[in-house]
Amino acid sequence: MSLTRSRLQRRTLTVSGHRTSVALEPVFWHELASIADSRSVSLAALISEIDADRPGSLASAIRVYVVEQLRAAVASAG
């Protein structure tokens, strides 16, 4: 993976009624948007769900959520 692709991208969103900024690698933003699309919810709505159930930082919770969703998709496909 190139360094350009691994650099953090910061986005500002309204999550659970408050503005917040989240920095993630582009691959996580892409997969998170795909998950939101597949569930027919906005990116902000999906992140609000993740935010409501997180023990640590929001960025870490999002990364874990994306990995768990990808693992579940692989398990159901195989």
Summarize the structure.
With 78 residues, the chain is of the alpha+beta class. The chain is 60% helix and 18% strand. It contains four helices and two strands, in the order αββααα.
Strand-helix topology:
Layout: H1 3-6, E1 9-15, E2 18-24, H2 26-38, H3 43-52, H4 58-77
Antiparallel strand pairs: 1-2
Helix pairs in contact: 2-4
Explain what this protein looks like in three dimensions:
There is one protein chain. With 78 residues, the chain is an alpha+beta fold. It has one domain (3-77): Orthogonal Bundle (Ribbon-helix-helix fold). The chain is 60% helix and 18% strand. The chain has 4 helices and 2 strands. The chain has a two-stranded antiparallel ribbon with strand order 1-2. Strand 1 and strand 2 form a beta hairpin. The model has no long low-confidence stretch (mean pLDDT 91).
Biggest sheet: strand arrangement: 1-2
CATH superfamily heading: protein bp1543
Distance between the termini: 26 Å
- Provide the residue-averaged pLDDT: 91
The CATH topology corresponds to Ribbon-helix-helix fold
Quaternary organization? single chain
Report Rg. Answer: 13 Å
Could you say which overall geometry the principal axes of the C-alpha atoms support? globular
Backbone structural class:
alpha+beta
What helical percentage do the residues reach?
55-70%
Estimate the strand proportion: 15-25%
Low-confidence stretches: none
Counting DSSP H or I runs of 4 or more residues, the number of helices is: 4
List keywords for this structure.
78 residues; alpha+beta; Ribbon-helix-helix fold; two-stranded antiparallel ribbon; 2 strands; 18% strand; globular
